[in-house]
Amino acid sequence: MKPEDRIPEEDCRARLYTFLDTIKKDLSFEPEIQYPIKDGNKNIFADLVLWDCEKEKPFLVIEVKKPKLGRSNLLNEKSFDQVLKYAKLLDVPYFMLSDCTFTIIFKRDGTSAKPLRQYFRKDTLNYSLWKNIIKSLLSGDISSLPESDELAPEAEKNLIGIARHIAWKMLAPENKSIKVDNELLNRKSGEIYEMWMKEMFGRNIVKKMRMKN
Question: How many CA atoms lie within 13 A of 194 on its CB side?
Answer without folding.
Answer: 15
